[in-house]
Amino acid sequence: MGAQDQGIDYVQTSSSMAEERLMAVINGLGAMDDDSALAALQAVLRDAPELAGAHQLAAAIHAQRGDLEAAEAEFRAALALDPALSVARFQLGQLLIVKGDVDAAVQVLEPMALTAQQSPDADVLGAYAGAWLQAVQGQLEAAIREVDRGVAGPQMFPALTADMRKLRQAWFEALAEGDGPGPTVPLFLSGYNRQG
């Protein structure tokens, strides 16, 4: 076995070990505080910066802590490594809405929404992305229809579904009261605004 072959084996082993460490972090999240979880993820990313899932998880933790800039950078890193990470794309879009960067949010969410509209089997995240796109344009009736389309699909993320239902209700109430566009900050990202 040549030196080059040994290097390839080492890289594969190192990546495999990093993926195992990432899974250990994911499995232990409930018992860790944000600082410990971030430290563990940073160690994984030092060894395997190519793990898009580790960047995505780090982004979510940064957002939960209120560090929106770090969260955005990590979401973008995850998507640069794996553009098909629809959850990271959806989370980035919502984060951009929270930050008030609606134009950037539209750029991130629009491809998801268009794909969902073209499919008779509504992609749940795409439908939710479409709901946000309609809401930021003040089209609450259309936003509610998109949430309904998403809720009708197979649910992989029960907490997200619950939050989208709450958001749908808030939009419905805003329409009934004539209060304009209603809430524009994602309810389940409320932790993004937490200080600390």
Question: What this model shows, in words?
Answer:
The chain is mainly alpha-helical. The protein folds into two domains: 1-84, Serine Threonine Protein Phosphatase 5, Tetratricopeptide repeat (Alpha Horseshoe); 101-196, no CATH class. Helix content is 74%, strand content 0%. The protein has helices at 3-28, 34-47, 52-65, 68-81, 86-99, 102-118, 124-136, 140-152, 158-177. It starts with a helix and ends in a 19-residue tail after the last helix. Keywords: TPR repeat. TPR repeats lie at residues 52-85.
What keyword list fits this structure?
mainly alpha, 9 helices, Serine Threonine Protein Phosphatase 5, Tetratricopeptide repeat, disordered N terminus, 2 domains, disordered C terminus, about 200 residues
**Which assembly state applies to the chains in this document?**
single chain
Give the helices and strands as they follow along the chain: HHHHHHHHH
Return the domain count: 2
The level of helicity is: over 70%
What is the gyration radius calculated from CA atoms? 19 Å
List the uncertain runs: 1-13, 187-196
> How many helix segments?
9
State the distance separating the first and last CA atoms.
Answer: 52 Å
Task: Tell me the major beta sheet.
Answer: none
Strand content: under 5%
> What average pLDDT do the residues reach?
80
Shape: elongated
Number of strands: 0
The computed structural class is mainly alpha
Pfam family, one: TPR_19
Keywords: TPR repeat
TPR repeats: 52-85
